[in-house]
């Protein structure tokens, strides 16, 4: 089932995927989702925030059990982060149908919009809007690298940007949410288990830091006369690494804009994006506060720690694990399941082993047999939760 998705948004030069929200690739992925829903006779809905829902049964009668993930990607990402959860959701439904199961509750497959925030900088946009975790005005005004706002690109995609925002009606259809995801580390490899269950998501955030200087000629400007913003930028990157090591957290500068961007000119401005995460919110906050001293820092997103519902977590581990309960793992990656949990929806996650341990890169992988184990585990979980 992943096969028809494999060509969408693929960069042939690298094998990586570029699937920005509301891009052409995203529209193709949405069509694929609609086709999968139609093929199964599911009731397809797109909510005001662009999230897609495919229902087996009517959630107006009784809140449903929902599973799914996202189809957008980080830039140059792998084939599994997001799509594996959506494909597995449809496959688990098929499995239930083939076994003649008639669930007592409606079952939904969801594809959340713009989970990665690759284009506008804020991750989990679809679930944040749905739950009211981000204000529509702020979301609509966010710009991409071309200067287009979210409002612009949604309008161009034929959506109604001014209708976005907290959607209680849709939220009320979600009784429980379970997201299956490729593991983004090596814990399941180490434990020799194909499927795990999430315990918690680390608190994490993104900050934009702007360094301003004076653009000038690279050959004729004496070193003493320069105001080069690249130098404080470089010091910040090293300080982030040292501070993270000291505090036992992680910090990453993965995106930088240098303008005007001439090899033969001192830059006038460097904009950097800092991503910092850790088990303890205070450590992350302190690291950023220390780095931010005297700098122009803007918080783009902050996601507090998520501790998944313990009863649901243990139930998932029992049902998904077979003879021995599935291992329970914390993660440093953000997910829509975390946003839903923070909004009070009982939510949990299943992870599928990734032999490379690598993610947000084309090297991300999952073996066919482990994907199948994930689908079987998810089907058991859905059947159990639908009782
Ligand atoms: C999204 O995948 C994130 O954790 O940044
Ligand atoms: Mn991701
Ligand atoms: Mn993901
Ligand atoms: Mn994520």
UniProtKB/TrEMBL annotation:
<feature type="binding site">
    <location>
        <position position="81"/>
    </location>
    <ligand>
        <name>Zn(2+) 1</name>
    </ligand>
</feature>
<dbReference type="InterPro" id="IPR036264">
    <property type="entry name" value="Bact_exopeptidase_dim_dom"/>
</dbReference>
<dbReference type="InterPro" id="IPR010158">
    <property type="entry name" value="Amidase_Cbmase"/>
</dbReference>
<dbReference type="GO" id="GO:0046872">
    <property type="term" value="F:metal ion binding"/>
</dbReference>
<keyword id="KW-0479">Metal-binding</keyword>
<feature type="binding site">
    <location>
        <position position="277"/>
    </location>
    <ligand>
        <name>allantoate</name>
    </ligand>
</feature>
<keyword id="KW-0378">Hydrolase</keyword>
<dbReference type="InterPro" id="IPR002933">
    <property type="entry name" value="Peptidase_M20"/>
</dbReference>
<keyword id="KW-0862">Zinc</keyword>
<feature type="binding site">
    <location>
        <position position="81"/>
    </location>
    <ligand>
        <name>Zn(2+) 2</name>
    </ligand>
</feature>
<feature type="binding site">
    <location>
        <position position="70"/>
    </location>
    <ligand>
        <name>Zn(2+) 1</name>
    </ligand>
</feature>
<comment type="similarity">
    <text>Belongs to the peptidase M20 family.</text>
</comment>
<feature type="binding site">
    <location>
        <position position="264"/>
    </location>
    <ligand>
        <name>allantoate</name>
    </ligand>
</feature>
<protein>
    <submittedName>
        <fullName>N-carbamoyl-L-amino-acid hydrolase</fullName>
    </submittedName>
</protein>
<dbReference type="GO" id="GO:0016813">
    <property type="term" value="F:hydrolase activity, acting on carbon-nitrogen (but not peptide) bonds, in linear amidines"/>
</dbReference>
<feature type="binding site">
    <location>
        <position position="181"/>
    </location>
    <ligand>
        <name>Zn(2+) 1</name>
    </ligand>
</feature>
<dbReference type="Pfam" id="PF01546">
    <property type="entry name" value="Peptidase_M20"/>
</dbReference>
<feature type="binding site">
    <location>
        <position position="360"/>
    </location>
    <ligand>
        <name>Zn(2+) 2</name>
    </ligand>
</feature>
<feature type="binding site">
    <location>
        <position position="206"/>
    </location>
    <ligand>
        <name>allantoate</name>
    </ligand>
</feature>
<feature type="binding site">
    <location>
        <position position="116"/>
    </location>
    <ligand>
        <name>Zn(2+) 2</name>
    </ligand>
</feature>
